[in-house]
What does this fold into?
Amino acid sequence: MKELKTQQIQPAKDIIWLICLLFIAVLLAVFVRSHIIKTAGGFERDLYFPFSNTNQLVIANPATPNLFRENGRYLYTTVCAPCHQTDGSGIAGQYPPLVGSEWVQANGSGRLIRVLLNGMQGEVEVAGAKYNNTMLPWKDLLSDSQIAAILTFIRSEWGNKSGDVSAENVKTIRDKESTRTEPWTAEELLQIQEFE
Ligand code: HEC
It folds into this structure.
């Protein structure tokens, strides 16, 4: 009778062991998975910045020599194109164009950088047409070098032919206007010299 009892208990013990083993296996799998994700199989994630998937690479086409500008193209496509459109033509009456825009192509990039950092509101004339809308600020969302890359791109794309903007240019204006919270109006901007 006693023997029978232990024989009956045996399978239950096995199941407990099995569950323990399974539990350990799952824990190990979770640990190994998170370790692999963290170390990316020995590759540094940031090495490939700003690209993290094939689509981004296709859009940026990094076979072209100026990677900084191509980073700007990628950022423009994802961040600005929803309003200003992929071809920079804007939407009549709502979003002004960047193609042929005197704001984008100004010799000095001071006003343009301010527009990107703090946004723009109120009436503005762009390429002969009037707009009266609001663009929100980007200063908390984009770094100096990201803004510089975007501006370098839009100043030399779609037939625009203006010079590059550097991260230092952006930093200078960011520091100068650090206390400003409001978006700029065209009127205010026109009172600032292009190179200031
Ligand atoms: C949600 C829509 C929206 C997005 C996104 C947006 N803008 Fe604008 N942008 C506007 C509007 C609206 C104005 C005009 C504001 C006004 O009427 O005063 C403007 C004005 C401008 C101007 C000055 C006028 C001109 O056409 O030259 C520039 C330059 C500009 N945006 C660049 C950018 C860039 C670069 C990005 C991406 C970082 C961007 N914008 C993202 C809506 C947007």
Remarks:
- The first helix runs from residue 2 to 39.
- The first strand starts at residue 120 and ends at 126.
- Residues 79-80, 82-84, 95-98, 101, 103-104, 112, 115-116, 120-122, 124, 126, 131-135, 138, 150, 154 surround heme C (CB under 6 Å).
- The mean pLDDT is 89.
